[in-house]
Specification:
Methane Monooxygenase Hydroxylase, Chain G, domain 1; mainly alpha
């Protein structure tokens, strides 16, 4: 989960300090590769483990869904380079803040899983991720609406529409992890 939070923070840094973009995007790509390696390593260990604390399928699903978050962060970041973006729009910054907040909340959720039967905050943190995702939907819809309402350059519409879509997919992926964990908690409590 640390790599996920780091990737989100690096995306925020990319947008806040929009300089040296090549190096910042490369750092996010490196984190994405580390996450891929971590998932493969986890699956190797999982295949060798006789007993697991929760169902193997659930562990696999959490790992896959968490990897999707970093994949979407990397895809979002890469589009700034791919589309030669010159200036960051406020909605992109707002969505990035939501990505950072979601990953921070998910880190707490994942840490609290070990106490799922006694945790006082696990359920409220899952709800918070869902709340942030709902807010992300609103920001995404408003950004797309404003894009089509105010932008006159069709190329800018195409570029920003895709960037916003990937950022929204990132927040959705955070909710997916929270939902999987909520399902696991329901099975085990």
């Amino acid at each position: 989960m640390d790599n996920t939070c780091d990737a989100a923070e690096k995306l925020k840094d990319l947008l806040l300090n929009y300089t040296d973009t090549e190096a910042k995007i490369a750092a996010i790509e490196d984190l994405e590769h580390k996450c891929d390696i971590n998932v493969h390593t986890l699956l190797k260990h999982l295949n060798r483990s006789f007993i697991t604390p929760i169902d193997r399928e659930d562990i696999y699903l959490i790992a896959k869904e968490m990897d999707d978050i970093v994949d979407h962060i990397e895809s979002s970041a890469y589009r700034f380079k791919l589309f030669n973006i010159k200036e960051i729009r406020p909605a992109a910054m707002e969505m990035t803040d939501m990505i950072v907040n979601c990953t921070k909340e998910l880190k707490v959720v994942v840490d609290e899983m070990r106490y799922m039967k006694t945790s006082k905050i696990l359920h409220e943190k899952i709800i918070e991720v869902n709340r942030i995702e709902n807010q992300g939907d609103d920001v995404y819809r408003e950004a797309i609406h404003n894009l089509f309402l105010n932008e006159t350059d069709p190329m800018e519409v195409i570029k920003w529409k895709e960037i916003y879509e990937y950022m929204e997919k990132t927040v959705d992926a955070c909710e997916d992890v929270a939902n999987v964990i909520e399902g696991i908690v329901t099975k085990h409590v």
